[in-house]
Amino acid sequence: MSPDTDLIEEILGLAPGSPLALLRAQRPEARQHAQGAFRELLRPGDPGGVSLAERAALALRVALREGDPVLAGRFRALVDAADPAIVAAEDLAGPAGDGRLAVLFRHADILATDPAGCGQAEIAALTALGLTPRDIVAITQLVSFVPYQIRLLAGLRLLQQEQAA
Amino acid sequence: MTSFTLKPVGWRPRLTPIRAETATPAELAALEACPPAQRSGAYARTLAHDPGSLGERGALFSIVMYAKGGLPTADREYATAVVSMVNGCVYCTSVHARRFVDATGKPEAMQAVFDGGFSAETDPRRAAISAFTEAMTRDPQAMTAAELAPLRAAGLDDLEVLDLIHSIAMFANANRLMLSLGDPLVPK
To answer: Which of B69, B105, B122, B126 has the greatest number of beta carbons closer than 10 A?
Structure first.
Protein backbone atom coordinates (compact mmCIF):
# COMPACT_ATOMS: atom_id res chain seq x y z
CA MET A 1 0.00 0.00 0.00
CA SER A 2 1.49 3.37 -0.95
CA PRO A 3 1.68 6.13 1.69
CA ASP A 4 -1.10 8.08 -0.04
CA THR A 5 -3.50 5.15 -0.19
CA ASP A 6 -6.59 5.37 1.99
CA LEU A 7 -7.71 1.91 3.08
CA ILE A 8 -11.41 2.81 3.16
CA GLU A 9 -11.41 4.38 -0.31
CA GLU A 10 -9.42 1.51 -1.72
CA ILE A 11 -11.88 -1.05 -0.33
CA LEU A 12 -14.91 0.87 -1.62
CA GLY A 13 -13.28 1.66 -4.97
CA LEU A 14 -13.94 5.38 -4.53
CA ALA A 15 -12.52 7.32 -7.45
CA PRO A 16 -11.16 10.82 -6.75
CA GLY A 17 -13.93 13.27 -7.54
CA SER A 18 -16.71 10.71 -7.03
CA PRO A 19 -19.64 11.96 -4.91
CA LEU A 20 -18.63 9.91 -1.89
CA ALA A 21 -14.95 10.91 -2.14
CA LEU A 22 -16.05 14.56 -2.29
CA LEU A 23 -18.30 14.04 0.73
CA ARG A 24 -15.43 12.49 2.71
CA ALA A 25 -13.26 15.42 1.63
CA GLN A 26 -15.53 17.67 3.72
CA ARG A 27 -14.15 15.89 6.80
CA PRO A 28 -10.47 15.64 5.83
CA GLU A 29 -9.22 15.14 9.39
CA ALA A 30 -11.57 12.20 9.92
CA ARG A 31 -10.13 10.56 6.81
CA GLN A 32 -6.56 11.42 7.83
CA HIS A 33 -6.74 10.21 11.43
CA ALA A 34 -8.67 7.01 10.65
CA GLN A 35 -5.84 6.11 8.28
CA GLY A 36 -3.33 7.27 10.90
CA ALA A 37 -4.87 5.07 13.61
CA PHE A 38 -4.80 2.12 11.21
CA ARG A 39 -1.10 2.78 10.55
CA GLU A 40 -0.18 3.19 14.24
CA LEU A 41 -2.06 0.05 15.29
CA LEU A 42 -1.28 -2.31 12.42
CA ARG A 43 2.07 -1.01 11.12
CA PRO A 44 3.78 0.81 14.04
CA GLY A 45 7.47 1.59 13.71
CA ASP A 46 8.04 0.03 17.14
CA PRO A 47 5.47 -2.73 17.75
CA GLY A 48 6.63 -3.37 21.33
CA GLY A 49 5.65 -6.79 22.64
CA VAL A 50 2.93 -7.49 20.06
CA SER A 51 4.32 -8.46 16.66
CA LEU A 52 3.01 -7.12 13.36
CA ALA A 53 1.72 -10.60 12.52
CA GLU A 54 -0.15 -10.81 15.84
CA ARG A 55 -1.61 -7.34 15.25
CA ALA A 56 -2.80 -8.32 11.78
CA ALA A 57 -4.21 -11.55 13.20
CA LEU A 58 -6.15 -9.72 15.95
CA ALA A 59 -7.63 -7.29 13.43
CA LEU A 60 -8.47 -10.19 11.10
CA ARG A 61 -10.21 -11.97 13.95
CA VAL A 62 -12.44 -8.97 14.73
CA ALA A 63 -13.26 -8.37 11.05
CA LEU A 64 -14.30 -12.02 10.71
CA ARG A 65 -16.42 -11.84 13.89
CA GLU A 66 -18.05 -8.65 12.58
CA GLY A 67 -18.78 -10.26 9.22
CA ASP A 68 -16.72 -8.11 6.84
CA PRO A 69 -14.71 -10.51 4.63
CA VAL A 70 -13.33 -7.69 2.47
CA LEU A 71 -11.79 -5.83 5.40
CA ALA A 72 -10.64 -9.19 6.81
CA GLY A 73 -8.80 -9.83 3.55
CA ARG A 74 -6.89 -6.57 3.90
CA PHE A 75 -5.61 -7.56 7.34
CA ARG A 76 -4.68 -11.04 6.08
CA ALA A 77 -2.70 -9.46 3.25
CA LEU A 78 -0.59 -7.32 5.62
CA VAL A 79 1.59 -10.28 6.59
CA ASP A 80 2.40 -13.84 5.47
CA ALA A 81 -0.90 -15.72 5.30
CA ALA A 82 0.92 -18.84 6.51
CA ASP A 83 1.97 -17.13 9.76
CA PRO A 84 0.73 -19.25 12.70
CA ALA A 85 -1.13 -16.26 14.20
CA ILE A 86 -3.03 -15.66 10.96
CA VAL A 87 -3.85 -19.34 10.55
CA ALA A 88 -5.13 -19.50 14.14
CA ALA A 89 -7.21 -16.34 13.73
CA GLU A 90 -9.13 -17.88 10.83
CA ASP A 91 -10.55 -20.65 13.04
CA LEU A 92 -13.27 -18.87 15.03
CA ALA A 93 -13.88 -21.98 17.17
CA GLY A 94 -10.34 -21.94 18.56
CA PRO A 95 -7.79 -21.98 19.91
CA ALA A 96 -8.59 -23.48 23.34
CA GLY A 97 -6.43 -23.26 26.43
CA ASP A 98 -4.29 -20.56 27.97
CA GLY A 99 -1.63 -20.21 25.31
CA ARG A 100 -0.69 -16.77 24.05
CA LEU A 101 -2.84 -16.80 20.90
CA ALA A 102 -5.80 -18.29 22.76
CA VAL A 103 -5.70 -15.48 25.33
CA LEU A 104 -5.20 -12.78 22.69
CA PHE A 105 -8.08 -14.03 20.54
CA ARG A 106 -10.41 -14.41 23.52
CA HIS A 107 -9.82 -10.71 24.30
CA ALA A 108 -10.59 -9.84 20.67
CA ASP A 109 -13.67 -12.08 20.59
CA ILE A 110 -15.17 -10.63 23.78
CA LEU A 111 -14.57 -7.05 22.66
CA ALA A 112 -16.03 -7.75 19.23
CA THR A 113 -19.17 -9.52 20.36
CA ASP A 114 -19.87 -8.66 24.01
CA PRO A 115 -17.84 -5.60 25.05
CA ALA A 116 -19.66 -5.26 28.37
CA GLY A 117 -18.50 -8.80 29.20
CA CYS A 118 -14.84 -7.76 29.43
CA GLY A 119 -13.65 -7.62 33.03
CA GLN A 120 -10.56 -7.47 35.21
CA ALA A 121 -9.96 -11.18 34.54
CA GLU A 122 -9.39 -10.52 30.83
CA ILE A 123 -6.86 -7.79 31.56
CA ALA A 124 -5.17 -10.01 34.16
CA ALA A 125 -4.89 -12.80 31.59
CA LEU A 126 -3.08 -10.43 29.22
CA THR A 127 -0.74 -9.31 32.01
CA ALA A 128 -0.04 -12.97 32.83
CA LEU A 129 1.29 -13.41 29.28
CA GLY A 130 4.03 -10.92 30.18
CA LEU A 131 2.49 -8.10 28.19
CA THR A 132 3.24 -4.54 29.36
CA PRO A 133 0.57 -1.88 29.95
CA ARG A 134 1.62 -0.39 26.60
CA ASP A 135 1.06 -3.74 24.85
CA ILE A 136 -2.33 -4.21 26.54
CA VAL A 137 -3.48 -0.72 25.57
CA ALA A 138 -2.24 -1.23 22.00
CA ILE A 139 -4.10 -4.54 21.67
CA THR A 140 -7.25 -3.05 23.14
CA GLN A 141 -7.03 0.01 20.88
CA LEU A 142 -6.55 -2.30 17.92
CA VAL A 143 -9.47 -4.64 18.55
CA SER A 144 -11.63 -1.61 19.41
CA PHE A 145 -10.65 0.27 16.24
CA VAL A 146 -11.71 -2.42 13.77
CA PRO A 147 -15.39 -1.96 14.83
CA TYR A 148 -14.94 1.73 13.85
CA GLN A 149 -13.72 0.71 10.39
CA ILE A 150 -16.49 -1.90 10.09
CA ARG A 151 -19.25 0.67 10.73
CA LEU A 152 -17.67 3.39 8.63
CA LEU A 153 -17.46 0.95 5.71
CA ALA A 154 -21.01 -0.26 6.29
CA GLY A 155 -22.35 3.28 6.37
CA LEU A 156 -20.47 4.39 3.27
CA ARG A 157 -21.72 1.29 1.44
CA LEU A 158 -25.29 2.35 2.29
CA LEU A 159 -24.61 5.78 0.79
CA GLN A 160 -23.12 4.13 -2.31
CA GLN A 161 -26.25 1.98 -2.69
CA GLU A 162 -28.47 4.99 -2.17
CA GLN A 163 -26.65 6.94 -4.89
CA ALA A 164 -26.79 3.98 -7.28
CA ALA A 165 -30.54 3.55 -6.84
CA MET B 1 -32.52 0.09 30.68
CA THR B 2 -32.79 1.22 34.29
CA SER B 3 -29.02 1.16 34.98
CA PHE B 4 -28.48 4.27 32.82
CA THR B 5 -28.35 7.60 34.58
CA LEU B 6 -28.01 11.33 33.93
CA LYS B 7 -25.91 11.59 37.09
CA PRO B 8 -22.14 11.79 36.68
CA VAL B 9 -20.52 8.33 36.67
CA GLY B 10 -16.89 7.74 37.65
CA TRP B 11 -14.40 5.41 35.97
CA ARG B 12 -11.69 3.31 37.61
CA PRO B 13 -8.93 2.06 35.28
CA ARG B 14 -7.76 -1.56 35.34
CA LEU B 15 -4.20 -0.47 34.46
CA THR B 16 -2.23 2.20 36.34
CA PRO B 17 -2.48 5.44 34.32
CA ILE B 18 0.54 7.43 33.14
CA ARG B 19 1.39 10.37 35.44
CA ALA B 20 2.04 13.72 33.76
CA GLU B 21 5.14 14.35 35.93
CA THR B 22 6.86 11.19 34.70
CA ALA B 23 5.41 10.98 31.18
CA THR B 24 7.69 10.81 28.15
CA PRO B 25 7.55 13.58 25.49
CA ALA B 26 5.70 11.17 23.18
CA GLU B 27 3.09 10.43 25.88
CA LEU B 28 2.60 14.15 26.59
CA ALA B 29 2.23 14.96 22.88
CA ALA B 30 -0.41 12.27 22.50
CA LEU B 31 -2.36 13.66 25.47
CA GLU B 32 -2.23 17.13 23.88
CA ALA B 33 -4.13 15.76 20.85
CA CYS B 34 -7.08 14.78 23.06
CA PRO B 35 -10.03 17.10 23.75
CA PRO B 36 -9.00 19.48 26.57
CA ALA B 37 -11.63 18.11 28.94
CA GLN B 38 -10.18 14.59 28.63
CA ARG B 39 -6.44 15.25 28.81
CA SER B 40 -5.94 15.04 32.55
CA GLY B 41 -8.45 12.25 33.17
CA ALA B 42 -7.63 8.66 34.10
CA TYR B 43 -8.97 7.39 30.77
CA ALA B 44 -6.68 9.50 28.55
CA ARG B 45 -3.75 8.83 30.86
CA THR B 46 -4.41 5.08 30.61
CA LEU B 47 -4.51 5.22 26.82
CA ALA B 48 -1.27 7.25 26.92
CA HIS B 49 0.63 4.02 27.60
CA ASP B 50 0.50 3.62 23.79
CA PRO B 51 1.11 7.17 22.57
CA GLY B 52 1.01 6.41 18.84
CA SER B 53 -2.53 5.11 18.89
CA LEU B 54 -3.77 7.71 21.41
CA GLY B 55 -2.50 10.60 19.26
CA GLU B 56 -4.28 9.47 16.10
CA ARG B 57 -7.36 8.14 17.85
CA GLY B 58 -7.69 11.23 20.06
CA ALA B 59 -7.51 13.48 17.01
CA LEU B 60 -10.10 11.32 15.25
CA PHE B 61 -12.42 11.52 18.27
CA SER B 62 -12.12 15.33 18.40
CA ILE B 63 -13.01 15.83 14.75
CA VAL B 64 -15.87 13.32 14.81
CA MET B 65 -17.52 14.90 17.84
CA TYR B 66 -16.65 18.58 17.39
CA ALA B 67 -16.17 19.33 13.66
CA LYS B 68 -18.01 22.52 12.70
CA GLY B 69 -21.15 22.36 10.56
CA GLY B 70 -22.92 19.17 9.58
CA LEU B 71 -24.81 17.21 12.22
CA PRO B 72 -25.79 19.42 15.20
CA THR B 73 -24.10 18.73 18.53
CA ALA B 74 -27.35 17.58 20.11
CA ASP B 75 -27.77 14.87 17.47
CA ARG B 76 -24.16 13.66 17.77
CA GLU B 77 -24.50 13.46 21.55
CA TYR B 78 -27.88 11.71 21.27
CA ALA B 79 -26.52 9.13 18.80
CA THR B 80 -23.45 8.40 20.92
CA ALA B 81 -25.66 7.98 23.99
CA VAL B 82 -27.78 5.48 22.00
CA VAL B 83 -24.69 3.51 20.91
CA SER B 84 -23.49 3.47 24.51
CA MET B 85 -26.85 2.17 25.76
CA VAL B 86 -26.88 -0.63 23.16
CA ASN B 87 -23.34 -1.63 24.14
CA GLY B 88 -24.10 -1.38 27.86
CA CYS B 89 -21.57 1.37 28.61
CA VAL B 90 -23.05 3.13 31.64
CA TYR B 91 -20.14 5.59 31.82
CA CYS B 92 -20.28 6.78 28.20
CA THR B 93 -24.08 6.91 28.31
CA SER B 94 -23.99 9.25 31.30
CA VAL B 95 -21.42 11.57 29.71
CA HIS B 96 -23.14 11.90 26.35
CA ALA B 97 -26.69 11.91 27.67
CA ARG B 98 -25.70 14.88 29.84
CA ARG B 99 -24.10 16.64 26.88
CA PHE B 100 -27.32 16.07 24.95
CA VAL B 101 -29.21 17.66 27.83
CA ASP B 102 -26.74 20.57 27.91
CA ALA B 103 -27.34 21.14 24.19
CA THR B 104 -31.14 20.82 24.29
CA GLY B 105 -32.28 21.55 27.85
CA LYS B 106 -34.41 18.39 27.67
CA PRO B 107 -33.51 15.95 30.44
CA GLU B 108 -37.02 14.49 30.26
CA ALA B 109 -36.44 13.39 26.63
CA MET B 110 -33.34 11.41 27.61
CA GLN B 111 -34.92 10.01 30.75
CA ALA B 112 -37.91 8.78 28.71
CA VAL B 113 -35.53 6.70 26.57
CA PHE B 114 -33.73 5.39 29.67
CA ASP B 115 -37.08 4.33 31.12
CA GLY B 116 -38.93 3.14 28.04
CA GLY B 117 -36.30 2.23 25.46
CA PHE B 118 -35.71 3.73 22.05
CA SER B 119 -39.36 3.22 21.03
CA ALA B 120 -40.25 5.81 23.68
CA GLU B 121 -38.64 8.55 21.56
CA THR B 122 -41.40 10.82 20.28
CA ASP B 123 -39.35 13.38 18.34
CA PRO B 124 -39.34 12.19 14.68
CA ARG B 125 -35.76 13.27 13.96
CA ARG B 126 -34.37 11.60 17.07
CA ALA B 127 -36.52 8.51 16.44
CA ALA B 128 -34.97 8.18 12.97
CA ILE B 129 -31.48 8.70 14.39
CA SER B 130 -31.95 6.16 17.17
CA ALA B 131 -33.34 3.48 14.82
CA PHE B 132 -30.43 3.87 12.40
CA THR B 133 -27.92 4.06 15.26
CA GLU B 134 -29.20 0.94 17.01
CA ALA B 135 -29.19 -1.07 13.76
CA MET B 136 -25.65 -0.03 12.85
CA THR B 137 -24.41 -0.75 16.36
CA ARG B 138 -25.98 -4.21 16.57
CA ASP B 139 -25.47 -5.61 13.06
CA PRO B 140 -24.00 -3.26 10.46
CA GLN B 141 -23.79 -5.99 7.79
CA ALA B 142 -27.56 -6.57 7.92
CA MET B 143 -28.42 -2.99 6.97
CA THR B 144 -29.76 -1.86 3.59
CA ALA B 145 -29.98 1.54 1.92
CA ALA B 146 -33.69 1.58 2.78
CA GLU B 147 -32.61 2.35 6.35
CA LEU B 148 -31.36 5.74 5.20
CA ALA B 149 -34.86 6.75 4.09
CA PRO B 150 -36.14 7.72 7.57
CA LEU B 151 -33.04 9.91 8.06
CA ARG B 152 -33.67 11.61 4.73
CA ALA B 153 -37.35 12.07 5.64
CA ALA B 154 -36.22 13.71 8.88
CA GLY B 155 -34.18 16.16 6.82
CA LEU B 156 -30.60 14.90 7.19
CA ASP B 157 -28.36 15.88 4.26
CA ASP B 158 -25.28 13.97 3.07
CA LEU B 159 -22.82 15.63 5.46
CA GLU B 160 -25.16 15.09 8.42
CA VAL B 161 -25.48 11.40 7.52
CA LEU B 162 -21.69 11.11 7.25
CA ASP B 163 -21.29 12.80 10.64
CA LEU B 164 -23.86 10.39 12.09
CA ILE B 165 -21.99 7.38 10.68
CA HIS B 166 -18.72 8.74 12.09
CA SER B 167 -20.34 9.27 15.52
CA ILE B 168 -21.79 5.75 15.62
CA ALA B 169 -18.49 4.22 14.51
CA MET B 170 -16.54 6.30 17.04
CA PHE B 171 -18.58 4.92 19.92
CA ALA B 172 -18.30 1.34 18.70
CA ASN B 173 -14.66 2.16 19.46
CA ALA B 174 -14.99 4.33 22.58
CA ASN B 175 -17.38 2.00 24.42
CA ARG B 176 -15.03 -0.94 23.90
CA LEU B 177 -12.08 0.99 25.33
CA MET B 178 -14.06 2.19 28.35
CA LEU B 179 -15.66 -1.19 29.06
CA SER B 180 -12.44 -3.18 28.86
CA LEU B 181 -9.87 -0.85 30.40
CA GLY B 182 -11.91 0.16 33.45
CA ASP B 183 -15.02 -0.11 35.59
CA PRO B 184 -17.83 2.45 35.88
CA LEU B 185 -18.37 3.90 39.36
CA VAL B 186 -22.12 4.41 39.52
CA PRO B 187 -23.48 6.83 42.16
CA LYS B 188 -25.64 5.23 44.86
So the answer is: B126
Q: Across the interface, do A158 and B57 touch by the CB < 8 Å criterion?
A: no
**pLDDT bucket at B1, cuts 50 / 70 / 90:** very low
- Name the nearest CA neighbour of B73 among B142, B4, B163, B133: B163
- Is residue A146 within 8 Å of residue A71, measured between CB atoms? yes
Please report whether residue A130 resides in a domain: yes
Q: Which CATH number belongs to the domain containing residue A102 in this structure?
A: 1.20.1290.10
**pLDDT (tens digit, 9 = 90+) per residue, B17-60?**
999 889 999 999 888 877 787 888 999 999 999 999 998 998 89
Cβ-defined contact of B175 to A115 (cutoff 8 Å):
yes
- Residue ranges covered by each domain of chain B: 10-66, 73-176
What is the reported pLDDT for B187? 85
Do the domain assignments include residue A2? Answer: no
Give the DSSP H/E element, type plus range, for residue B11: strand B10-13
Asked if the structure places residue A22 within a domain, the reply is yes
CB contact under 8 A, B140 and A66: yes
To the nearest whole angstrom, how far is the Cα of B177 from the nearest Cα of chain A?
Answer: 6
As its CATH architecture, domain B73-176 has Up-down Bundle (1.20)
Query: Domain tally for chain A?
Result: 1
Rg (CA), chain B: 17
From chain A, pick out residues whose CB is under 8 angstroms from the CB of B165.
151-152, 155-156
Residue A154, helix vs strand vs coil: helix
- ipTM more than 0.85? yes
Is the pLDDT assigned to residue A1 strictly greater than 60?
no
- Taken in order B51, B53, B58, B60, the sign of the CA dihedral is positive
